[in-house]
Specification:
alpha+beta
Amino acid sequence: MSEREDEEGVRDHEVREPDAQEHEVREADVRESDVQDHEVRDQLYEQLAAYEGRAAATEGKGKDPVNEPMIRHWCEAMGDTSAAYRGPDPVAPPTMLQAWTMGGLSGHTDGTGRSAAYDEMFALLDGGGYTSVVATDCEQEYLRPLRPGERITFDTVIESVSRRKTTKLGTGYFVTTRTDVRADGEPAGTHRFRILKYRPAQRRKPVGPALRPRPVINRDNAGFWAGVAEHRLLVQRCTDCATLRLPWLPGCNACGGAEWDTVEAGGEGTVFSHVVMHHPAFPAFGPTGEGGPYAVALIELAEGVRIVSNVIGVPYDKVRVGMPVHLDFLRTDPELELPVFRASEGG
């Protein structure tokens, strides 16, 4: 069984790995007058390829055994209500595979963190000007369920380094690491993680007003955005068990059913949690053109599902947990309208 977890994020950044013919550096992307720089880059790939097969982490140990509190928090965050993850004999959600290997904010303090070879390879990339990084996708293979109490160990290897690729983010190299995960000494799964280390492309200054990034629309969520265009907030409903789900998914996370229909949300809800976004001024994200700060909230709808959206109608520092809000639609530019939630000062 395998799962590709971050395909949407890749499309959102307009970054894809192979095929090589599509992404090999084009002549226009290389300064023709800088032959020496071109030769250095070719030599860099040869240096990077020498790290393939070398360890990135050896005899790593999970900071905590598989445990029910982490499973519960994960399921609450993901909205996963499967009975397999609770009760007298629960298992961990398969997609938590990487979570048990993470070192947290303090990292792995027992000497099982990144290897010297891994750091050397990234120093080469940084020294070559490929200083930016973006995660593109990951693949997981599950060999057996993980159960509370099991101790996690792992080894990570630098599996592959691509030849130089050109993407809309810039030119760089895809680096794939493979982590083999064990539970109480038995193989439990494999996690492949791929990043792009790149030199940012030179951006042309936009002509005209700043526009918000476009939402990624695909076959799984096209119906949701079609509803937004009609000022309707559509929620998926499993036709097998009647469980509602938002955001839209290709299958039911309660019973696994593949068939569904939709119900229209009434639009009433409350702020379940929220953050205030602070970042350098970007006018497209300010409803009055000032670029923020602004409130981003997890809204719990009256129907019981949750959606991430902006809260408008009150200053960002007046938003609070439990605040009642109602659905509104905000046109940010002639081609984009978004569902948002409006609150009142006395709400």
